[in-house]
């Protein structure tokens, strides 16, 4: 089967879609500067190394989110809404 029979289109078409997506992200005022800078830096890196770093970053953010939720639950249990 060719690439087009798999539904991927040609490599050129895939590259064009990626470039269009990157342009959309980079010009969207709602997208954070942090993400725009990360994307720019990402393109200068080895893809496998970047993916490994993203795994570490995701793990850290998930742990931070879990702890934030626990702290909020703890605060909610200790705060009965009255003024002291």
Question: How would you concisely characterize the structure shown here?
Answer:
This protein is an all-alpha fold and about 80 residues long. It contains 3 helices and no strands.
What would you say this structure looks like, in words?
The chain is an all-alpha fold. Helices cover 70% and strands 0% of the residues. The protein has 3 helices and no strands. The longest helix is centred in the C-terminal third of the chain and has 32 residues, at 47-78. It is elongated and about 65 Å long. It starts with 10 loop residues before the first helix and ends in a 6-residue tail after the last helix. The model has no long low-confidence stretch (mean pLDDT 89).
Task: Please describe the structure with a list of short key phrases separated by commas or semicolons.
mainly alpha; elongated; 84 residues
């Amino acid at each position: 089967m060719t690439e087009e029979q798999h539904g991927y289109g040609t490599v050129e078409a895939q590259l064009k879609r990626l470039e269009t997506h990157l342009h959309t992200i980079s010009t969207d005022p709602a997208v954070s500067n942090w993400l725009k800078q990360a994307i720019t830096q990402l393109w200068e890196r080895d893809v496998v190394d970047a993916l490994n770093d993203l795994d570490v970053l995701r793990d850290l953010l998930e742990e931070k989110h879990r702890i934030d939720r626990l702290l909020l639950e703890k605060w909610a249990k200790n705060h009965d809404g009255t003024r002291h």
